[in-house]
Every structure is written in structure tokens, then in C-alpha cells.
Amino acid sequence: MESLVVDKVTERLPTVAVDVSALSYLRNLPLADDTYAVPGEIEMLIGASIFPHLLLPNKVQGQHGHTTPCALETVLGYVIVGFAPALIENYATVSYCCAADSMEYVVRKFWEMEEVNVPPILSPDDRECEEIYTRTTVREKDGRYVVALPFKGDVSSLGDSRLMAERRFMCLERKMQSLPKLRKAYDDVIYEYLDKGYISEAPPETDNGNDAPSYFIPHHGVIREDKVTSKLRVVLDASAKTSTSVSLNDILYGGTNLQGNLYKILINFRLFRIALSADIRQMFLCIGIRDCDHRFQRILYRFTPEEPLKIYQFNRVCFGLKSSPFHALRTIKQLTADDGDSFPKAKETVETGLYMDDFVYCVDNEDEAVDTTSEVIGLMKAGQFDLVKWTSNSQRVLDSIPLSHRLSSVKEFDESDVHKILGLCWSPTTDVFSLKICTPAERCTKRTILSCVARIWDLMGFVAPVVLYAKLLIKELWLSDCDWDDTPPDSIAKLWIRFREELPILEQIKIPRHVGITRDSVVNIIGFADASEKAYGAVVYFHVQNGDNITVNLISAKSKVSPSKVVSLARLELCAALVLATLIDTIVDACNNRHPIDNIFAFSDSTVALCWIHSSPHRWTTFVANRVSKIQSLLSPQNFYHIPGSSNPADCLSRGLTPSQIIDHPLWFHGPSWTNLRPSDWPVVAFNPSTMSQPPEEKKHTLIVSAPPEESPIIVLANRVSSWSKLLRCVVYMCRFMKKLPSREYVSAADLNFAEHLVLRELQALHFSNEIANLRAGKPCSRTFQRLKPFLHEGSTRNSHRTLRELNQGL
Question: How open is the CA angle 336-341-347, to the nearest 5 degrees?
Fold first, then answer.
């Protein structure tokens, strides 16, 4: 067996406990897994190529046919296959199968979409990949670019890959034999690749195993019935491991992510009246690969099972390599640098309107649109790229494009077909955005709810309050601590059922693509932030003024669920202001090259948050100071204003709305009514932070002064004098100097006794201070001292202390 090590094989199987009382016919069978009825982890998955060889002839079937599982005899024991009755209520059967998709992936994509995009950081690997591209890329006479595979590892580390590719092809061929349509579509694609020179048959000498290192790429086909063209896509798996557990992708650089920011592209797409859209036909295959790298892009294929397997190799950049997206977009960038000066309109257009092989753009008038499409087509053609599937809301623009290159259909904006429930669609005829709805499953479990919510795709936040409503359901699910396939509490189930039934209502929402901007428009950005104990967020509108005509349109919104840990409402309001500042900064950055933004107005109904923002960050505690500093770096405090909560549309983002509530909401899609007036007529005034006398979170400044404790001069002297008699005489002379002893020509015994008494008192005060304090407080001393019967001689003690104090002060 050839084993593959993966992080996770599948979900726990079975998904819930099985009711074995209904499966009495399986008792006393020697089972391969005695705990088949209990959900557990799967440690190994045996493939179809091995499983038939494990089967033995016997089979045990229940009386109810396909509604109960059967037991198949294998060399490992009997295995249970099929549906089984569940042990829990409201769960009819349990299916023994692998998970169809990765829940972690769709959940991660969902939360990533809710974040405001930040630019990527160039890594050392990315810089190395760029250096390889710059050094090795050449351009042929016809304008086509030829690139090199950017290897970061030793190609000799690739082991044998033909056996693995051959095995995968045999599996594909069996599938094609049972699906004649797939066979025909696959053959047509391979014939097309051969006809256009995308692939060619490998030289005969490469068929033996003694040539230079090479790589055979397994492949399969994906049929998309919903696509107008190219229903079959051949998918290459360059991550398949060779005999040395190294794949081609393992030794390739991925390159920096040059893909356009879809968020900014969609904002740009809404600015002007005439919209344009097109696709680059077979983008990767328009770029050549240098001859010495062809051997790393080999595939196996034959048109009938009777033919011998043939080896083909790609002469172009193929889909499935780690470096392919970088090669495609980096080559487009190189093309605009090389030939952009000959097509000035196209240069700016391609740089701001290309998202991988999708091109979307807008211009102010039809004449400019015709010129732009002509230049973009010419620029792409100079690099041997073809722009096809053109759509526009202008018939005149479409008439200027060859009929074979047009496509009259709805344009969908989605990063992945895997997680599409709310897909953003644009209709060229009506020039509006709409939402594409797929009804989720009716079963109400934690798994089905999370699966549905994670597939909600609303990048621009047009229905962000509805998405927030769903996110709050997820939070409630987590707090309820129910298992994946348990039915949640009734309170959550009722909310989910209502949400699921109302979801199709969102198809009625139509968002105008064009926000009303012309070349002479005055464009203001209006943003609102709000927070509650549940969530916080921000929403941004364009306020466009054309003479006396004013239009206000929703541009974007983002929301976040409040953390489970209790956070003050003022802090959450500050977090909402930070989301708003980040959102506005991103939108301004996307628009500035196309049309200037005249004014920015940011509103909040929190006077505390506004007081923080309008003051220096150093005044506040760390949490507040960090966020205030970030806000002020993105947006001037003078742009922040106060409004009443009743006029704040971001209130929808802090509490959530159901689909039926958002349809006719008075604030959400166009903001408060006063935004339809000129800014000078708005009922808002500049915020004055001095109106708050004692704002919270103000940093308390405490000055601490420390000084070393004074050391007794007698102790200092004792540390310097090694003779006891000398120490006593020195103390006598010190006392005489301080007028504590009479001056005489000799040192008497009384003088020495006085000095000795002072030294002993000082030593006791230094080393037995705790014992002396206990005696003064009337408390017992430690056990060691109690045996010595200690006491204080108050008269001599007061005199000695006074003498020592005066001695210390005098010295």
C-alpha cells in the first residue's frame, strides 16, 4: 500500500450513536470494529484500489432492505455499510460516509471576509521568486512571454511519479467509461490543447526511466453545468507526492500574491455610469514555459482503452501549479510595463480592474468606454492574451466588440464556488446588484447552522445586519455547549427556523451599481459606527452631489461580534470607530485615483469614544491609547462628529436584523433622511471634548520617589573597625564631640560602658527589630527569644534612643 499522511481523514463516524437494539441480526458476527455504533475518530482510510481485494463472499442483510445496514465479510472481519437507526431523537438515520467538504475551510473564509483587507507583506521567498522571474523571462517575436518554473528545491528530490499518475488515470478512465459525456468532453479538451499547441507528445526517449528528473501530473475533470462555456475544466494535481514523498509544488516558489483586491475592484466598479466586464480566455495557457521545464509538466492520456498510454507535456503554464497564479498576474504586470505607453487608457484600466482572469471596470461615458475597450483588447493581444465574454450596460459599447467575444449573462462576483449562498450578481440590463439565494437544509443542528452561515458570501456588506444576525446565532450555539449533531435549545431553533424561512426574501433586494458619480460631482463619504453588548460595526455611504441633485448609496459595511468576556460599552464603541476608520481609509484609497473625495464625515453616538478620539492618546490607558492612536493615523479626529442614536444606521450592525426587517428598513440602504441635504444643512456640529469633565480610562500619573534607608554611623564604623576596644573608644570620642560625654584627658570605665551600651542598642535595633516591636506592642516574641525572658528597660531605652538619634543627626 502507498500511504498518504494527512492532518485529518474525515469527521467522526458515525456522526451520532447507533441504536444497536434494532440490529439484532448483526450480533455474534466477528466484526472488524466492535465499537462501530459509537462515534469515533477515523485513523486510516483504505482506497478503492485496495478495498475489493479485502472482500470475501459472505453478506448479512437485515429484513428491511436498504433502510438498515448490511454486513460485508472481509479479511479484517465483517464491516457495517449503509444507514442505521440513530439513538437520539429527531435524527432518523446515521450515514457511514466521509465529510463532503471541509467545515474549517468555509468557516475560515467566512471570518476572513468579515475583516477589512490589509496589504500582504513581501517575504524572502517572494523576493527570490521575483528575482527568478526577472532573470529568466523572455518574450518571443509574436509578443508571447515565456517563463521558467521557479524552483526553490533540488529537482533531483523528485522520485518516481509515473506509477501514481498512471493509477490515477486508470481511475479516471473507468469513470469516463461509465459517463460517455465526460469522455467526449475530455477528448475534446485534449484535442483542443493539441491543436493550439498547449501540449505536445513527449519525445520518445523520455519513455525510459533513465532520463533527467521529470514529473507526471495526475489530472481529472470537473464539469460545471451552470457555466455557459467551458463546461469541463481539466484540473491538474501538482501536489501529488512522488515515491520520495516530494511533489512538484513542494519544490516551487509560490510567488507574491499579485491578485487584485476584489473589495477595491467592486468599489471602483460602482463609480461611473458605463460598466465593462470581460474574461481572459485560458489565461495560464497564454504564457509559455521554457523548453527545459516541459518535462516537469507531463500528463498521461489515451483516447480509447485499447490504445497504449501516451505521454504529453505542457508547453504553457498549466493550472494546478503553485507558481501559476504568480506567473499569470506577473506577466500581465510585465505586459503593461512593456507596452502600456502605447495603450495609455488600458494601462490604468488593467492595473485597477483585473481580478485574476476577470476584468471589471467603469467609465464616465460611452465614447470613453469604446476607446477603453479597444485599447484593453489591443494591449492584451500584444501579449497573446484574448479578452472574451464582454458584457456592458451600454449597447453601443457592445456593438463595437465582435459578436464572438460578447457574452450576455449575469456576472457573478464570488471568490469560490464552494461557499456560495449569498452570491453577488450584476445584471447588465438593469445595472443593479442582486443576491443569489440557495435555501439551506431544513435540519436544525449545530453542524447545519454553521455550514449554512459559513457559506453566506456578502463581501461588501450589503446585508451585513442579516449576516450579523446569523453570527449571533453561532455565538449562542457555542455558549449552549451542544454537540455538532445535537438539536440546539428551542430558543435558538426558533430563531434559526425564522431566519431560514425568511432568507429567500433577500432576492428582492436590488442595489444600484452606479452611485451617481460624474466627472463634475462633489463626492462625500459618510460613515457611521455603533456598538452594543452583542456586537459592533460600521457602515459607509457615498453622498454624491450633482448640482441640486443629491444621491446617497450604501457602499460597504463590516460587523464584529462582541467577545464573550465582558467589555465596557465605551470600549466597544471605540472598537466600532476603529472599524469605521479602517473602512473609510480603504475606500478612499480605492477611489482617489479615479475621483477625488471632497469631504469625510464619521459619526458616532458615543460621547466617551469621541472624547477619546479627539484627545491625545497618551492621556488614556493602554487599551484605549492603542486604538485611538490607530484611528488618528487613519483619519483626522476633526472628521468625527456626534449624532443621536436614533439617526445612526449602524445601530442595525450592533443588534442584527432578520431578512424581513432589512427589506424596508428606513435607515439602512440610504442613511438618515437629513443626508439627502447639503452638508451645510445637516443637524450636526463639531464635537468639543472639553464637554466631558472626567472621561473614563484616563491614565493616573503617580510620581514615586525612593531613597536608600539611612544607615547608622555606629554600624558603619563597626564595619570598618576590627577591634572591639578601638570601636568603643571611637564611639566615646564621637559622643564627646556631640557633647554627650564630658571631655577629659583620659577614657574612663564609665565612658566605655556608655559607648558599649550604645553599640549594643544599635545592634539590637538592627538585627532584632521584630522582637523589639512585639515587646512594645505587648505581643509575645518568637519561641527562641521567649526562653531568654526578654524585656525593655524603658528609661535607659528612651535615653539611648535619643542619644543615637542625636548622634545620627549630628553626623
Answer: 45
Spatial separation of the C-alpha atoms in residues 298 and 242, rounded to whole Å: 14
Determine the pLDDT at residue 97. 35
Judged by DSSP in three states, 640 sits in: strand
The residue type at 51: F
pLDDT in tens, 453-482: 777 778 899 999 999 998 888 888 878 877
- Among 7-21, 467-481, 657-671, 696-710, top mean pLDDT goes to 657-671
d(CA 568, CA 623): 12
What phi and psi, each to the nearest 5 degrees, are found at residue 205? Answer: -65, -15
Task: State residue 376 phi and psi, 5-degree precision.
Answer: -65, -45
β-strand pairing of 423-427 with 432-436: antiparallel
Which of 229-243, 292-306, 570-584 comes out lowest in average pLDDT? Answer: 229-243
Residues whose CB is less than 8 angstroms from the CB of residue 91 and which lie 6 or more positions away in sequence, other chains included = 16, 485, 487
CA distance 596 to 636: 17
Contacts of 777 (CB under 8 A, 6+ apart): none
Q: What 3-state DSSP class applies to 221? A: strand
Distance, in Å, from the CA atom of 11 to the CA atom of 782, rounded to the nearest integer, reads 67
Q: Which pLDDT score, from 0 to 100, does residue 807 have?
A: 57
Spatial CB neighbours of 306, under 8 Å, sequence gap ≥ 6? none
- CA–chain centroid gap for 190, Å, is 38
**Maximal C-alpha separation, the chain:** 133
Chain-centroid distance of CA 475 in Å reads 18
Q: Which residues contact 275 (CB under 8 A, 6 or more apart)?
A: 269, 360, 361, 362, 392, 393, 394, 426, 428, 431, 513, 514
Task: List C-alpha distances in Å: 633 to 288, 583, 613, 661, 710.
Answer: 45, 13, 11, 36, 50
Helix 103-113, helix 446-454: angle, nearest 10: 50
440-474 burial by CB neighbour count: b if 16+ within 10 A, else e? beeebbbbbbbbbbbbbbbbbbbbbbbbbbbbbbb
CA-based torsion, 764, 766, 769, 770: positive or negative: negative
Of the candidates 584, 577, 632, 625, the residue with the CA atom closest to the CA atom of residue 605? 577
Cell numbers describing residue 549: 441633485
Smallest CA-to-CA distance from 684 within 648, 642, 649 is with: 642
Q: In whole angstroms, give the CA distance from residue 706 to residue 712.
A: 19
Q: Rounded to an integer, what is the distance from CA 342 to the centroid of its chain?
A: 39
Pairing of strands 310-314, 298-301: antiparallel
Q: Which three cell numbers stand for residue 607?
A: 460621547
- Residue reference for cell 446565532: 473
- Residues 528, 559 contacting (CB under 8 angstroms): no
Task: Please list the helix, strand and coil fractions of the chain in percent, rounded to the nearest 5, in that order.
Answer: 40, 20, 40
CB 438, CB 425: distance < 8 Å: no
Q: Distance from first CA to last CA of the chain, Å, rounded?
A: 93
Asked whether 137 and 127 are in contact (CB, 8 A), the reply is no
C-alpha cell at 522: 462633489
